[in-house]
Amino acid sequence: HILPLQNLSESKFEDFVVDLSGNSSSLQSNITSSPINIVSIVNILSNIAEISKNISAFETNNYLYLNPQNILQTVDIIVSDDASGAWRNLNDNTNQNTSSSLLRSLETFASVLPAESFNMTTKNIQLNITMVNTSFNAFLNSSVQMNIKANSTGNIITTMTFSTLQNVLPPRNARNDSLNDTTINGKVVLVKFTGWTDSVSLTFSKLEHNLTVNPQCVFWNFSFFDNRGAWDNEGCSFKSDMNGKVSCFCNHLTSFSILMSTSIPESIAYALDLITYIGVGISMGSLVVCLIIEACVWKAMTRNNTAYMRHVSIVNIAVSLLIADIWFIIGASLIKADFQNPTTFFIHFFYLALFFWMLISGLLLFYRTILVFSHLSKSTMLAIGFSVGYGAPLIIAVVTIASTAGSGGYINGNKACWLNWSKTKALLAFVIPALAIVFINFLILIVVLYKMLRRGMGDSLQQNDRNAAVIIARCLAILTPLFGLTWGLGVGTIVVHYVCCHKKNFKFNNEFIGLVLAFLIVSILSENITCVLADYYCSGSLYTCMCFPPTVEY
Predict the structure, then answer these.
(1) DSSP-derived 3-state class of residue 157
(2) What is its subcellular localisation (predicted)?
(3) What interhelical angle do 98-111 and 84-92 show, nearest 10?
């Protein structure tokens, strides 16, 4: 459908551009979700741009054949946030230069627009055409300031400021085809000037104000990587980074932006990685020890329903955290975005399961100390426990990925296998349930402690149930604050973006080390369990421990 454009009459050519804009608007969801559809529209735009070069932009009669409104509306759709996932797939394909072709077409459109001052704005694009004499100084889209000194008078400057072109152009430069720790941290500005200048000053407001490492003032060079294009800093120099603004100076005009590193300085990155990997290993080893001890004492310590559900909760907390750590290690080693969504899903699911099993422990404590005359069967308690412990996290995890993955807002791009914060706030699907459970467990603990201090509380429970309730209360009293503090610090770290998300997740797991060790000491090594383990030790072997446990009542 591209070649016939060459043969269209002037009026039909105008109608074609109008129809392209209208059809793109009506089929927006189909276009933004499909890389193939985006490629097709970019090819059409490229063809329109090539035809438009042959039309003199200074002839009034030809202006309506290249109505900027229709072109900008079409481009606005394919560069929207909804299309970021499709663009990520296109940029991962080394045989595609679609993003570069789109920018080249836009530069062509900017060069053939009529010589008259006007402004035009869509959701993601702002177009300005200005007549200038010896200098030009303006704020573009309130986030980019430009100052140009011209060497002649009577010139025209055309600018297009893009709010979302960082979704389209990959953050690669001339030295590296894939910069996973670099991001486009300013709006992209396309500049066309009919005169000549070697003095261009630009000030960009940073998209992420927390990023301060390795700012680069760059322009898009179409010739790199077999004409796929990349960012280049030749002729551009960095001046300052102050108050959330980056200042640059360039001696030429084209399409500009700024690149900044999302990672911590390399001088400490290796040491931090080493410490965190060791930390995760200690965490996983502690959990394995926890599960072995549970296997040893299971029969002796599950004589009543309360104790049984308590140990079921302990095992599932340990298993959930262990599996989450395993998936985290898998995610930390992945580079390709194609595998990051499922990895993030399982990490999200099992971390949520960890908290919901903590909630089960709290509800069990509430049930045994408050509802003393209510008795649920073991099968009923198990059904409730597994439905809440794994069913609720599954629903939350599925809804999160279904509602955010399509728009490319599920994960933090190529930064880490973890939920997105800056774009869709998908991280709230973990933060809100986790901190809500911590708060509920605190309330349960307060109520239970008040009830236990009242005279006669112990008379309502059998000895075994009372002992189990006391142990559960002790666990919640220590583990709940640790969970709240650990993840509260983690959430604070994410919100302020002090380090990149990859390092944040390692930090989470490091903080879990103390939690896991406390989990072992408080939940496992209680007085009754140490007695059982002593009996096992005296009896001789781990095989005897696991297969022939003693039958002592506790």
Answers:
(1) strand
(2) Cell membrane
(3) 110
